[in-house]
Write a structure and sequence with these properties.
Elements (H helix, E strand, L loop, with lengths): L4 E6 L4 E6 L4 E5 L15 H7 E4 L2 E4 L11 E2 L2 H5 L10
């Protein structure tokens, strides 16, 4: 069974709180990934924050802003699920 992401909350430091269907919460740090060519548009913090969403049952960025699952930038849900559980640090 693949883990299913149900909510994401992007933060100003290029991290994202990721909430899974089973209640697990992880914090994914994108600060290194935004240096890679494919993720470079996310260096603009406004784009990072505004396009962060759930698509394909995982953390994604809807860069084209058209909800096209084939055109989004997404992270493998298994990669996210393997991160350690965190306590939510947002108010």
């Amino acid at each position: 069974m693949l883990p299913k992401v149900v909510q994401v909350i992007p933060m100003q430091d290029y991290s994202v709180y990721v909430y899974f269907e089973d209640g697990k919460i992880v914090c994914y740090d994108m600060s290194d990934m935004i240096e890679k060519e494919v993720f470079r548009p996310l260096k603009d913090i406004q784009i990072f924050m505004e396009t962060c969403t759930v698509m394909n049952d995982t953390l994604a960025w809807d860069i084209c802003r058209n909800r096209d699952n084939a055109m989004c930038l997404d992270i493998d849900p298994d990669t996210l699920y393997e991160l350690p559980f965190v306590n939510e640090q947002i108010a």
